[in-house]
């Protein structure tokens, strides 16, 4: 089994992105599955170009995308991605789309195919604050989730995919009164999510 896990580069003036800091520290193998780690650009166009190529080339059984949701107090597993790019904050290329589709002619939305409730349950068992989110927003995180699920659907792959948002790390919140989580906890959360997803795939077979 092969699991693709992604994080993002820093954006919005931050020096780090806890999603990639956590993903980059994951082991190369979890429960017998090979872990493929990739860092994605925080650009609408970059994600739509790079992510499909990675998925098609690697042919993973699971795709677990992660990103920073500064301001959220817990780990949130996303339920749905919508076919919209809309942001007043420019991405790392200076692009700020308004009401544009991720892909013309694609469905209005895709639901995550990861076992989202099992992931949240596993996280809470480990005493990690977690919940299900019904909106991945309309920024690059949503675009990445939609791109992954659309790529899988168009290619006719059986790959399961979804997105997990993580809070600011403590380091990022030192000078701003925002919720945060220890980077070690964020890394553990992603590892727990990987394990729960692998178990879900094995159970379904």
Topology overview:
Layout: E1 2-8, H1 18-23, E2 29-30, E3 33-40, H2 44-58, E4 62-68, E5 75-78, E6 80-82, E7 109-111, H3 116-125, E8 130-133, H4 140-155, E9 160-166, E10 168-169, E11 180-181, H5 183-204
Parallel strand pairs: 1-3, 1-4, 4-9, 5-8, 10-11
Antiparallel strand pairs: 2-3, 5-9, 6-7
Helix pairs in contact: 2-4, 3-5
Q: Which geometry do the CA atoms define?
A: globular
Q: How is the CATH topology named? A: Aminopeptidase
Order of helices and strands: EHEEHEEEEHEHEEEH
Could you give the distance between the termini? 12 Å
CATH architecture: 3-Layer(aba) Sandwich
Number of strands: 11
What features would you describe in this structure?
This protein is an alpha/beta fold and 205 residues long. The protein has a single domain, classed as Aminopeptidase (3-Layer(aba) Sandwich). It contains five helices and eleven strands, in the order βαββαββββαβαβββα. It has helices at 18-23, 44-58, 116-125, 140-155, 183-204, and strands at 2-8, 29-30, 33-40, 62-68, 75-78, 80-82, 109-111, 130-133, 160-166, 168-169, 180-181. The strands form three sheets. The protein has a seven-stranded mixed β-sheet, with helices on both faces. It has a two-stranded antiparallel ribbon with strand order 6-7. α2 (44-58) runs parallel beside α4 and α3 (116-125) crosses α5 (183-204). The chain is globular, with a radius of gyration of 16 Å. The relative contact order is 0.24. The mean pLDDT is 97.
Structure at a glance:
With 205 residues, the chain is of the alpha/beta class.
